[in-house]
Amino acid sequence: MADAIGAHRVGIRLAPGNPLTGLVEADPAPVRRALVDALEPLGLAYLHLTDNSRYPALRDLRPRWTGTLIGNTEFGHPTTPEAGAALVEEGRADLVSFGRLFISNPDLPHRIATGAPLAEIDETRLCTNGPEGYTDYPAAPPR
Ligand SMILES: Cc1cc2nc3c(=O)[nH]c(=O)nc-3n(C[C@H](O)[C@H](O)[C@H](O)COP(=O)(O)O)c2cc1C
Predict the structure, then answer these.
(1) Within a 10 A sphere around the Cβ of 107, how many other Cβ atoms?
(2) How far is ligand 1, taken at its centre, from the CA of residue 46, in Å?
(3) Are 110 and 140 in contact, with CB atoms under 8 Å apart?
(4) What is the pLDDT of residues 12-43, one digit of tens each?
(5) What 3-state DSSP class applies to 142?
(6) Which domains does the chain show, CATH number per domain?
(7) Which DSSP string corresponds to 43-105?
(8) Pocket residues: Cβ below 6 A from ligand 1
């Protein structure tokens, strides 16, 4: 892909040690270290990692990646603005992405900037057939 469209237009997302769907990895580190080492010289736009208490991917792989690193916190609960800020302040990531909170708060940047309360996501409505649970959360009323 980097050869075809330029490395600066290609990013990679890894979720090492993700236990969802019954996935079990005894030790996610060796394969991810080798993969990141192989990708490092390509100059990709970003590496995007989820952190994980079983395998602290951000801490382990950050020293091996000189490019832009995007992080999420552990999947057990949605990445919060406070936890995301801590990732950046501690140098564990350059940028933070928001998944579930962006679904339940379509105006998330505005809410963070203004301190408006954040709506919680109903995870029982995820991964169903259709837009319900993804596109039906309202923006915050004007304050
Ligand atoms: C409905 C849904 C589907 C997801 N699918 C994937 C996936 O296929 N692959 C992946 O690596 N992460 C997947 N994720 C994880 C997200 O990319 C993200 O890392 C995770 O939601 C953590 O961010 P958050 O705490 O802001 O939600 C999914 C998350 C949600 C909510």
Answers:
(1) 15
(2) 17
(3) yes
(4) 999 998 877 888 889 999 999 999 999 999 99
(5) coil
(6) 2-97 (3.40.50)
(7) --SEEEEE--SSS-HHHHHGGG--S-EEEE--TTSPPPHHHHHHHHHTTS-SEE--SHHHHH-
(8) 13, 15, 50, 72, 75, 78-79, 98-101, 126-127
